Amino acid sequence: MRKAVGIFKALSDDTRLRLIKLLESSGEVCVCDIMEAMSISQTRASRNLNILKQAGLVVDRRDKHWIYYSLNKNTAEECCGDVLKVLVKWLETDEEIGNDRLRLSKITRREQAGRAENGIKRQGKK
User: Fold this and answer.
1) Rounded to whole angstroms, how far apart are CA atoms 48 and 53?
2) DSSP for 54-110?
3) pLDDT for residue 115
4) pLDDT tens readout for residues 55-113
5) Of the four listed, 1, 25, 27, 102, which is most buried by Cβ atoms within 10 Å?
């Protein structure tokens, strides 16, 4: 029962609900992109991601200097899969969350374009 209480406490905040929906719809996202997409500080993003991680809802992966976050599929399925499915469905029409996802998609497209441009430049130098 304690695990369920911890999960529901973690979900009792609008920033964390936005994070859950952003991660659910986007997969793995780095903190810097979360900050920009949600227009929040690094401290706020990290603190709320840590609460979700402590509840077992989020996992992270380090890649050099970057930390990427994603939903913990194991916890979602074993403990509260149905609750998260309903929650994510409810959040689908939230305007603020829609704006978060739109900003994140612009960030992602900009980064992909930058990587492609850098790849072309590197090929031209060889």
Assistant:
1) 9
2) HTTSEEEEEETTEEEEEE-HHHHHHTSHHHHHHHHHHHTT-HHHHHHHHHHHHHHHH
3) 59
4) 888 999 998 888 999 998 876 556 566 666 777 777 777 778 788 888 888 887 666 66
5) 25
- What residues contact residue 80 under an 8 Å CB cut-off, 6+ apart? 4, 7
User: Mean per-residue pLDDT for 11-38?
Assistant: 90
Which structural domain range is residue 92 located in?
Answer: 2-125
DSSP code of residue 13: S
Check: pTM over 0.85? Answer yes or no.
Answer: no
Q: Which residue has the tokens 């780095």?
A: 30
CATH code of residue 23: 1.10.10.10
Contact criterion met (CB below 8 Å) for 66 and 78: no
For residue 111, the Cα-to-chain-centroid distance in whole angstroms is 17
Q: Judge whether 80 and 7 are in contact, CB under 8 Å.
A: yes
